[in-house]
Amino acid sequence: MFSYSYLFIDEEPPTFVTAPTNITVVIDQKVIFEEWLEVTDNDEVSSLECTPQSGVFPLGTTKVMCIAKDPSGNKANHSLLVIVEGKLCGVVVNGSAVLNILCVPLYLKELY
Fold it and tell me: Are 27 and 11 a contacting pair, CB within 8 Å?
């Protein structure tokens, strides 16, 4: 009787199928990367880690780096920008000057 054994080596990295280069949200809106990024693999995706992690981002632009891994240790990278914009609450006209008033949540008013 013969016995055979097979060794399968997975060298194919995961693929970012849906991966925007920019995510634009308004101030105080939580960003959850798993809702924006879709990753596939010939086996399975064992992890998707982004730095910084999902959460509420500060006003302005933040660069994010994401790494997807499969059980064989293959990796794929994707970088994106999270752009947080303020809400325009109103406009004040003072003579010839026009001032845009930015809405800021109460807990952030001390910082601005």
Answer: no
